[in-house]
Amino acid sequence: MSRFIESIGVLHGEIRNLAFHQKRMNETYWAFFGKENSMDLNEILNDSSFPLHGKFKCRIVYAEEVLDIQFMPYEIRPLDSFALVENNALDYRWKYDNRQVFERMKKEVNEDEIIIVQNGEITDTSYSNLVFFDGENWVTPTTYLLNGTMRQSLLETKQIVEKPIQVEDLNRFETFKMINAMMNLEESPNLSMSMIRG
Prior knowledge:
By secondary structure, the protein is an alpha+beta fold. It is about 20% helix and about 30% strand.
């Protein structure tokens, strides 16, 4: 049985981008279980007691029903280096609970984190989408692995733009950031392009 996760940001009691999470859950449910999703994230979270102060990751594991809900304090992990790792076969359109493929790729490099390359195109890290600053705009690759909820929100509000980014394009950018449900554009630290190796 396939199991999936939704990682939802909760900041001082405010749930982030809930509509995008619900949409992804609905699409996943239909694709794998062939019927409408009856799980309402708003109801699920309102029935849960979650902290009202600080930043927390709400991790919901589900299949045809919710299997587990956890709230964990969240701090942005400092990173010093990124390895470009090619994997043309990886398909992560759905947010699976099983993330062993990412752990295997990370074990093969010495850097802190990986940036996955497919057919010469930049995609994502093992746990985030990416945005690159070209001096004018924050640009996210069109060739994402997972269309993250923060990515969708930032595109919708025109805080970032979407363009193809090939490996050879990286030298055009001044800096980059990681974005995910727990890190918006303001919270994510600026990262030096010199951190990217390979």
